[in-house]
Amino acid sequence: MTTPTKKLILVLIAVFISEAAVMALINFFRMPDLVEALLDASVLILVALPILYLQLSKPMVHQYRVAVDARRTAETLLTTSIELSKSLDLKT
Which has more confidence, 77 or 61? Predict the structure, then answer.
């Protein structure tokens, strides 16, 4: 399992690689500066932000699933203990 810091570094590397690819395309086609700025911003929005969102939301989804599992376990233990206590003989 990777740490959040390693995940962030990997995301930033992916952003830099994608930005380098866009810059290579811009240089290849000799696009004007305005188009270059728009493409640069769109790479950040279309690539980096969704990846960052997914990476940051993963721990929250995992924590939610763990909480749901813990609640199910607690409910099962409660039901089992109630049924077990019903079967006990009070005189004994």
Answer: 77
